[in-house]
Amino acid sequence: MKKFYCLLGFVFFAISLANAQKITISGNVKDAASGEVLIGANIYDKISKKGAVANQFGFYSYTTTADSVDLFFSFVGFQTQRIYMSVTKDTVINVQLAADGVLDEFVVTSDAVDPIQEITRMGTINVPIKQIKELPALLGEVDVFKVLQLLPGVQSGTEGASGLYVRGGGPDQNLILLDGVPVYNASHLFGFFSVFNADAINNVELIKGGFPSRYGGRLSSVIDVTMKEGNMQEFKGEGSIGIIASKLTLEGPIKKDKTSFILSARRTYLDILARPIIQAATSGNESVGYYFYDLNGKVNHIVNDKNRLYLSVYSGDDKAYARSRNFYVDNNQRTDYRDEFGLKWGNFISALRWNNIINSRLFANYTFTYSRYNFDLFSEYEQEVSGAGASEKRFYAERYFSGIRDWAAKADFEYVPNPDHYVRFGGNAILHRFSPGVYASESTQRDEDMVLGSEELNSTEYAFYVEDDINITSRLKANVGLHYSGFLTDGEHYRSLQPRLAARYLLDESTSIKASFVTMAQFIHLLTNAGLGLPTDLWVPATPQIGPQQSMQLALGAFKTFKGFELSAEAYYKTMDGLIEYRDGATYLNIDQDWQEKVAVGEGRSYGIELLAQKKVGRVSGWVGYTWSNTERRFDEINFGEWFPFKYDRRHDISIALTHDWKKNRDFSLVWVYGTGNAVSLPTQRYEGAFSNRWGTPMRTQIEFYESRNNFRYRAYHRLDLSFSWWKDTSWGQRKWTLGIYNAYNRLNPFFMDVGFDRSGNRKIVQYSLFPMIPSFSYSFKF
């Protein structure tokens, strides 16, 4: 710890020596129509040929020694604003940019700062919300994660699922942040949709390599999702009605230019539509249903020019259930019974944030959060027997539940002494409370309730970081940092010092090469039962017996802008240690066994090449991506200790995502994906065996031999999705209709494979498919 503080002090001392009398221009960059901050807006000084970038809260700081500046404020899809002025002292300039009426072809000029070759970070992709909303969607439900799956280096796992497997990692290795708060289960509908409502989102950023030091706690990626802040100028709303869900978003000022709010809700109605059909078929005695809902809320309050407060809340739940109620009469006794079976899971996330501009060069963000994720599997049975003037009630219930709760606080600081340094530093602490899996039952037939399973575990995680974006020369720039983290659990104290380094070198104004080296540590694990992202997955901490996960990643790439396109090619090599997986035959249902006894600990490695051509503006926008990769795992207790392909290893992956605004009020979009089939374990030989049952009777059985883990591949996966939208402006706003087709040429892609039998009784490998061609329709509106 002393070394860390010495390094931090040295960084500030070195910066202060180089920091002569300078003038700082700072402020915020916002959308003129709504007051929303423009994250990542560019500020470029034509005189010095240097600039700045607005942070996550729209704040920028630019320092110069000149007596005048010629500033250009720009953001994709907005009109560039130019400010020329003489400066003699520190000055605050708050800028509001107006949206372009029509997104014409984007022309790269020397006046603009193009992030792709200028920024130091690698493996970072920002997808405009407009593109996310326009691309075809499964059942018409726009999904952020489905779009991220189309990017190089990101895979979906199984057909239709919203899980993300980034550069060979698992879904637990993704740091998913909603307004800076980790989301532990980001899936609805058993993994087919994510919890993020696109109407409530301002910005989405994916980082899959070259992680800055301010991020930690996961190995494979960061998905940073920022909610809208609410319109400061006027009351607005939008919503949609689809096949399976509807949603409504309202936003506006509580006090104009001072306080705003946004409230967004989404709910499916599969249960409501199916209820009358099921009840009619069962004479009203049975009911089966499923639904999920999301509720996002945020209040944004400007205290004064230097202080701002935010309160954001997310709540979302899934519930699937089956209920029945009936009676029968026997020997003048009436028996009424009721039973219910179901499962439910959900997240609650809350964050209180305070932005404080300490001075024109130092920005602070303090965050206090509470979050929880719960999974609950339950069954209840109730019986009442009545007759002859007496009655008797019987009740039996059982429940399996797990979850995780977090209380956290963090402080982040950004210090911009001059355009050649951008220093970030800070720290955080998280108190985790894990419920790894508890079975409980109660019955009127027993005097005491039964409780089995793991006890609740309390753990504390903390971290400190420092990083600096340094302009070494006009062509060479580096991001250097350290992330120090620790984890206290059950008497054990794990510590990890993680150096991070990323550098870029400009070959010319539009071309650069980049390299990065990062190490990461993760102190929590996800015990996964299935690739669907089922809620039965259990979050558990590192313990004295099961250590943390660790990784190292090297990456090298080339980046270029060319006629409005952002072109990139990246190669990476990644190692992972401390991975866990259920031993053969073990599941979360082994309630009489501690989870630590059920798992094997191993390692993984992944390497590959990723190519991307992206166009963010213009009448035709989108991207084409290609990935070649290889991902393997090794566990001493599995596959004879030999390396085997990861289940979601995919050698080749191609994605094309395009949108075309072909008329003023018409747009067309398409998505085409191709991927090598996932790995699967299938038997290669079968033997006849014999054994005796418990009564001593000889029995015969068949023993299947598996040559190795994941020894076969599914057929290649490919699919075409289409979407067509048209809209009309009205006196009250805008209305829009969207027609979509998922899997347009009806490809029967493999969902899973198993051993089956043909009509003659011979064994064969059988493929099961899930989604045929599915049309969809939705109606949306804005006012």
Give a brief rundown of this model.
The protein contains 5 helices and 49 strands.
How many structurally independent domains? 3
Helical content stands at under 10%
Number of strands: 49
Structural class: mainly beta
CATH class of the largest domain: Mainly Beta
Look at the structure and give the mean pLDDT. Answer: 84
Low-confidence runs (pLDDT<50, min 5 residues)? 102-114, 530-535
Largest sheet: 22 strands, antiparallel, barrel
Shape: globular
Strand content: over 45%
The CATH architecture of the largest domain: Beta Barrel
**Oligomerization status of the protein chains:** single chain
Radius of gyration: 28 Å
The CATH fourth-level homologous superfamily of the largest domain? TonB-dependent receptor, beta-barrel domain
GO biological process, one term: siderophore transmembrane transport
InterPro entries: Beta-barrel_TonB (IPR000531), Plug_dom (IPR012910), TonB-dep_rcpt-like (IPR039426)
Domain TonB-dependent receptor-like beta-barrel: 286-743
Domain TonB-dependent receptor plug: 140-218
Structure, explained:
The protein is mainly beta. The chain has 3 domains: 22-113, Immunoglobulin-like, CATH 2.60.40; 124-678 and 714-782, Maltoporin, Chain A (Beta Barrel); 679-712, no CATH class. Helix content is 6%, strand content 60%. It has a 22-stranded antiparallel beta barrel. A 5-stranded mixed β-sheet has the order 9-16-17-12-13, with no helix packed on it. Strands 1, 4, 7 and 8 form a 4-stranded mixed β-sheet that branches. It is built from 5 helices and 49 strands. Its main location: membrane.
